[in-house]
Structure formats: C-alpha cells, structure tokens
Design a protein that fits this description.
Blueprint lengths: L1 H40 L1
C-alpha cells in the first residue's frame, strides 16, 4: 500500500504543476483575446 500512496502523491504533484501551467496559458490567451475584442469595438 505504501508504494501505491507514493505513486498517487507523485501523480497529484504532476497534476498540480500541469494545472498551474494550463491556467497560465489560458490566462495569457484570454488577455490576447480581450485586447483583440477591445480593438474591434473601437
């Protein structure tokens, strides 16, 4: 059981890192999208 728990924790760490990267990428693409929309309205 100990080995399995270790694997789960490692996987959780990887997922957290991926989520943070994903959020960063999505946030940046949203900013770019918003700037395009703002230029459109003007």
């Amino acid at each position: 059981m100990g080995g399995f728990e270790k694997q789960v924790k490692e996987r959780a760490k990887e997922l957290q890192v991926l989520l943070k990267k994903g959020v960063k990428v999505v946030g940046e693409s949203c900013k770019k999208g918003w700037s395009k929309v703002k230029h459109f309205k003007r």
